[in-house]
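Sequence and structure are no longer studied apart. As an example, we show below a sequence and the tokens encoding its fold:
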Amino acid sequence: MNDLDLFSDPSSDGHLSSDRMGRRAQKAARKQQRRKRAGGRAAVLFALAFLVAVVGVGGVIGYAMLDDYLHPPDYKGQGTGEVTIQVQDGDLVSQIGATLQHQQVVKSSRAFNDVAKTEPKASTIQPGFYRMRLHMSAKDALALLLNPASRANQVTIQEGLRLAELLPVLAKKTGIPLKNFQKAAASPSGLGLPPYAKGHLDGYLFPARYDVPPKATAHDVLKMMISRFKQEADGMGLEAQAKTVGLSPGQVVTLASLLQAEGGTHEDFPKIARVIYNRLKNGTPLRLDTTVLYALNKRTLRVYNKNLLVKSPYNTYLFKGLPVGPIDSPGTLAMQAALHPAQGDWLFFVTTNPSTGFTEYGVTEADFARLKTKLDQYLKTHK
């Protein structure tokens, strides 16, 4: 018997006892569990580290996004250079901000919108073209939009101008050469005149305020004015209303031009319209000095007997009825008065005080003589 025999089980046939095998299996299992626990702790630590990294980056991004929301990007100062932007009719403040950002006037539309929320006048920004600068602060950009001096290419045409007077005004205010306007006026077929204008521009270049595009031509400007006339005419139902007063649309415009030339004040338009309608009905010559002056291409308060003999279809002393066309560009009030005359039996009117526009009315020749004397006295004292 050797030493090994002392520790061996005779019945084991040389194999380890079941107890020793059990202990070894338990020991191996404990080692495996320790490895699993170590691996699990490493995984947890890695996950935690990854989560911290993600949260950290997300926090930075989130903070940046929050800061951007609370403090949208904005330039500083009044900017440099010059750029013209257009505010369209009906644009909301947000749309204006988008235009400014697109044109690189402001850094972000949100910065402009935020500033606009604190300015009650922001909602009063008018459509048109504005001279702005590049890279402006939103506050300075809004201030420019609210400053009338920033308006670019804005042209206002007053009522009552003749074509020969109107074209030079357009040339001066737009910077487009006068010869360009004269050339465009000489070929009106492509300007969109209504058929009843019969190719004549006088009376159909509507007096109003216009925002002229920076690159507009003389043709574009005249077309824009005629388009505005048609818009106004459609708005008051000119063609349909003309039938109710027994005139053609073109005759209504002609009558309105007479009111614009003769009216001392806007309140006189309907009364003077009634005088003209009464004289047309009676077959009496209108005898209006303004039509004679149009034929002579003059502007004066003093009309002499020799002037009344001018051979022209515009001379309402020689020819009955309305002149052959408008003698100026009438405004909305004159056109409305031509369609809606006042009620009365007047046959005469005289502006007895041209400085104030005070106008008096009469029914008889004696009334007219009396009123004419008052005008003559005024003219003697105002030479």
Remarks:
- The chain has 14 helices and seven strands.
- The radius of gyration is 44 Å.
- The beta strands are 80-87, 128-134, 151-152, 154-156, 209-211, 348-353, 358-362.
